[in-house]
Amino acid sequence: xxxxxxxxxxxEVLKADGIVIVDYWGEGCSPCQALMxxxxxLAQRRAADAKFGKLNTTxxxxxxxxxxxxxxxxxxxxxxxxxxxxxxxxxxNPKDIEAMLDANL
Length: 105
Known about the structure:
Layout: E1 2-4, H1 9-14, E2 19-25, H2 30-45, E3 51-56, H3 61-66, E4 74-79, E5 82-88, H4 94-103
Parallel strand pairs: 1-3, 2-3
Antiparallel strand pairs: 2-4, 4-5
């Protein structure tokens, strides 16, 4: 799992070839904490299909806002650097995240 921040986000996500899925999470967000083990398991299971990363919005608030992340949890799928799909709030669950990935392969 790639730890994203303002130093590596552009290179690892916006300039990346293929699919990158980013978990935007916050330190005080209970749903984010609950989702994290499932997201990490999905990342291991589907590593051949996409690159997976997580970004701590508590530490990288400006970066999250620049990506139009206004609520948590938010999972965003980027394809060749372009934001193409997202799962937010109740839709940010393992089943819907995997469906989003499958729809964009």
